[in-house]
Write a structure and sequence with these properties.
Strand content: under 5%
Distance between the termini: 31 Å
Structural class: mainly alpha
Helix content: over 70%
Largest sheet: none
Number of helices: 6
Number of strands: 0
Length: about 120
């Protein structure tokens, strides 16, 4: 769900296919339940967005509703998510690019040891 908040298409094309292959049809039920949860979260965001008419997104909403410390914790959480999600998307995109050109997923994901070189770029 976190990945879907940032890039919905990436969760459909990057995360879901391996899940369907590994865990089976229970994944479809889980995605349907997650979609229901996302509707509730979207309604909460809409309500908070009208309650807190300021820039800053989640940080501003949480900071005003739950206090300054909770706002900073939300900021830290958002920062960590922004650091983790792009490499996940890059790794998944490399699988799709592999059908067109030879792309090492570690290079696309910003991995340390590119193309089998143990002393590859840091």
């Amino acid at each position: 769900m976190t990945l879907s908040c940032l890039t919905p298409a990436s969760s459909l094309f990057v995360v879901v296919p391996p899940l369907l292959g590994e865990t089976g049809t229970g994944t479809a039920l889980t995605i349907a339940l997650a979609a229901l949860l996302c509707i509730g979260v979207a309604l909460c965001y809409a309500e908070l967005g009208t309650l807190v008419p300021s820039a800053g997104g989640e940080y501003a909403m949480v900071g005003i509703v739950a206090g300054r410390f909770a706002g900073w914790m939300m900021f830290v959480l958002s920062f960590i998510i922004v650091l983790i999600i792009p490499p996940i998307i890059a790794l998944g995109t490399a699988d799709y690019l592999h059908s067109v050109m030879d792309v090492d997923p570690r290079v696309a994901g910003g991995g340390r040891h590119a193309a089998g070189d143990p002393d590859g770029p840091a």
